[in-house]
Amino acid sequence: MPRTSRVLVLGSGFAGLWAALGAARRLDKLGASQGAVDITVVTSQPFHDIRVRNYEADLSACRIPLQDLLDPVGIGYITAEVTGIDPAEATVSTADGTTLSYDRLVFALGSRVAKPGLPGLAEFGYDVDTYDGAMRLQAHIRGLTDRAPDPASATAVVVGAGLTGIETASELPRMLSHALGPEATPRVILVDHNPHIGSDMGESARPVIEDALAANHVDTLTRVGVTAVDERSVTLSSGEVVPAATVVWCAGMRANPLTAQFGVECDRLGRLPVDDYLRVKGVEGVFAAGDVAAARMDDDHMSVMSCQHGRPMGRYAGYNVIGDLLGAPMLSLRIPWYVTVLDLGPAGAVYTEGWDRKVVSTGAEAKATKQEINGERIYPPLTGDRTALLAAAAPALQAAPTYGD
User: With pLDDT > 70 as the criterion, what percentage of the chain qualifies?
Assistant: First the structure.
């Protein structure tokens, strides 16, 4: 009886899920005999989480059981925390002591918020980096009513004014108002060490963002950092102590630290170098996709940590890992367009095109695009239909989201 080859996919986020489905689709298209290749996802949670929505108030549609997405297409999954990778031995180890061998590996364990070792941050800080973290923040906000109202209870400090920080800060006034009642006056402060809020968004979008934050009653502090956190206050690098019972850390992202175990030089974000086929350079039999991979999107730009790039990287990695295993052709990935649609809460959204982020839509029009992206575009088929799931995993680039008429 022929030996079954094993493809391990580490991670079940945007890149991991689509890598697994893309691999299953390629096997189906190549007509591989049943049992010739086993595809198994290894993930710490048995879910596909719509991570980019964690700043929202309603997360009821943001956690999808993996069995609903993988069982219909014959992909197995193991719920375990990956703790080690030995590319020389082609093995993966998990926290429960299991060692898994592979013939091909897709590394897609994503990124995490980079929290420094500030006094009190681990004990009293929150984040929206994961579904569980976002739910913990929401439970904390609901619990603010358990104490007598004071300025600290009504104040939240968001650290880091990148995209996640801006989106989180824009939603927090409503979340605090809902929890504390109509008589409360919530205060949300967005803090960043850079000279401008949304420094990555460029000159064109900055006035839109600043106006939206003002409309949302979000205060901003730039050129300042946080040096300490306790249960009811935040200490800033300026020496000011701000009464605040809620601190949300959104500053900085880093690739999963297991990238260091492949023995190759990573970029400043800890990402693995990959070629146009998503193969990790210098490591036999290993592909990487999503936030752990630095892939070239065009001649001048590398991938960014986003579902916009993670989903197609996953699809192409899945297609190519089976091609590499079975000696079939592979496809190179280049993405000729780049957009950013930033949610600005009650003030709408801002839609930018290109790497220079030229504003093309704002307000309610851009918000409609953002809602379509968050509620439909980035979701896998939820019907459990095998044909639909495999079709959605095709290595084809989506067109840019639409806006206006």
Answer: 99
* Three-class secondary structure of residue 53 per DSSP: helix
Domain-embedded: residue 359 = no
Model pTM above 0.90 = yes
Q: Ramachandran region of residue 350, left (φ > 0), alpha (ψ -120 to 50) or beta?
A: beta
Single residue among 222, 249, 276 that ends a domain in this structure: 249
- pLDDT on residue 405: 53
List C-alpha distances in Å: 82 to 43, 51, 242, 365, 380.
7, 19, 39, 42, 24
Which helix or strand (DSSP H or E) is residue 10 part of? strand 5-10
Whether 242 and 269 share a structural domain: no
Looking at the structure of the chain, the number of domains it has is 2
With the CA atoms of 294, 117, 147 and 170 taken in that order, what torsion angle do they form, in degrees rounded to the nearest 10?
-30
Distance, in Å, from the CA atom of 327 to the CA atom of 169, rounded to the nearest integer, reads 49
The contacts of residue 186 (CB under 8 Å, 6+ apart) are: 154, 155, 156, 172, 173, 176, 177, 180, 217
pLDDT digits (tens, 9 = 90+) for 62-81: 999 999 999 999 999 999 99
Residue in this structure with the two tokens 């989506």, named with its chain if needed: 398
The domain of 71 spans 5-113+253-337
Which residue ranges in the chain fall short of pLDDT 70? 1, 148, 404-405
* H helix runs in 297-384, sequence order: 307-326, 363-372
Residues 193 and 262 grouped into a single domain:
no
What are the C-alpha distances in Å from 57 to residues 44, 168, 175, 181? Answer: 24, 10, 7, 16
Greatest Cα pair distance, the chain, in angstroms, is: 73
In the prediction, which pLDDT does 88 show?
Answer: 97
Q: Please write the tens of the pLDDT for every residue from 189-211.
A: 999 999 999 888 888 999 999 99
Are 325 and 37 within 8 A, CB to CB? Answer: yes
Helices 202-215 and 163-180: crossing angle in degrees, nearest 10, is 10
**CA neighbor of 223 nearest in space, from 236, 204, 206:** 236
- Output the domain CATH number for residue 242: 3.50.50.60
Contacts 24+ apart (CB under 8 A), 176-182: 176/141, 176/144, 176/246, 178/57, 179/141, 179/142, 179/144, 179/145, 180/144, 180/145, 180/149, 180/153, 180/154, 181/145
